[in-house]
UniProtKB/TrEMBL annotation, chain A:
Region Disordered: start-end pairs: 240-267
Record-annotated membrane-spanning stretches: 12-35, 214-232
Coarse class of the protein's main subcellular location: membrane
Entry keyword set: Cell membrane, Membrane, Transmembrane, Transmembrane helix
Family label: Belongs to the SURF1 family.
Upper classification of the organism: Bacteria, Bacillati, Actinomycetota, Actinomycetes, Kineosporiales
Membrane disposition: Multi-pass membrane protein
Protein name: SURF1-like protein
Entry's localization field: Cell membrane
Record field: compositional bias (Gly residues): 256-267
Keyword Magnesium: no
Pfam family, one: SURF1
Superkingdom of source: Bacteria
CDD domains: SURF1
From TrEMBL, chain B:
PANTHER family in the cross-refs: MEMBRANE PROTEIN, MEMBRANE PROTEIN-RELATED
Bilayer disposition of the protein: Multi-pass membrane protein
Annotated ranges, domain DUF3817: 19-109
Lineage top rank: taxon: Bacteria
Protein name listed in UniProt: DUF3817 domain-containing protein
Transmembrane parts of this sequence: 24-42, 54-75
InterPro entries hit by this protein: DUF3817_TM
Alphabetic keyword roster: Cell membrane, Membrane, Transmembrane, Transmembrane helix
Lineage: Bacteria, Bacillati, Actinomycetota, Actinomycetes, Kineosporiales
Keyword flag Repeat: no
Pfam families in the cross-refs: DUF3817
Main location: membrane
Localisation per UniProt entry: Cell membrane
Amino acid sequence: MDSERPGVPKGRVAVLTVVALLVVLACGGLGVWQWQRGNVVITEPPARQPVAPVSEIVDAGASGAAAVLSADEVGHRVEVTGTFDPDVDLLVPGRALDGVVGSWALGVVVLADGSGVPVVRGWVPEGTLAPALPTGTVDLRGVVQPPEASDLAPSTAALPAGQTWVVSAADLINRVDYPVANAYVTDTAPAAGLRAVPPDDPGQATRRLDWRNLAYAGQWWVFALFAVVLWFRAVRDERRAAGEDDPGTPADGPVHGAGGRDMSGAR
Amino acid sequence: MSAGTAGGLRSQAKVRAALTRYRVMAWLTGIGLVVLVCVGMPQEYLGAFGGGDGVTRVVGVAHGWLYVILLITTFDLGNRVRWPWKRMLLTALAGTVPFLSFYAERKNTHAVQAQLHAPVA
């Protein structure tokens, strides 16, 4: 209200502003620190977890929430042991690798328990056929990925037999007569003639919230806010004090400079 | 005290209510801080009272929020009785020092009551 009045102690206002900024920075920083402490990482990132049998991560028989991969299951490295179903030898067109359009070779490995795990065997350039499915028992390493949604398909056009737009249990289940895991594994070390498809989704480490630290974070931010309020107040007080020297400006009420000021002197 | 309507305070009842709120919060926060420093810290860091962090877990967070409310009531009261910002700041800082908060509460209460009882001109 009285911003440009002469006599306002600009130096003191500047000092107050700098001090308030430092306090806000300190409180804000301490809040960020507590916020980070409150988000405790309890698992390693999935890519750094030890390789596990695929059946430990994905469960073809599960339904509902259990069938959905959690954030720390996506990206997990797994070992898939079983046999490729000779009836599922698919190409997924329209997949780029390093900017080159091609297709994914998709198969289903049948595990010992009779369930199937979709496996992206690798990538081939457009117009190239994928190498034949391996016969007999395979033991491959790969990375677990969440199933693709049907809207990922670049087109709704019908595809020739032996091709599909997305890697999804919902699609594969129509091609086989056993349960198929609602996920897929992308083979890390594909056979000759195929290039490895890097996993799209690296997954996340799981976190646990520590409410004590999160509460402290909130409190630090409140203190920062209080510093801003006090700064606002201090600058106003300084300007009013300067204004009192100006005879044309009445002081703020009768008590200003009397009751309030006297009490501050008592401390 | 200078002349003026009850120390220049517009509404005595509201100031009294604000003073009560401030006093309640000052006491709660002060007690919480003393419990934290005299019971919680020795328990967590010296193994006293059976050790563990039971007291700091509960009182630590509770005290933090009580202190936040104390800041609000301090600002509210200070606004109503027109404390200069330094007094608000000192009152707020006093709330972080064990036992000093009780002294500050007494000082502030006496000062506000003196303002409230100031003679009407």
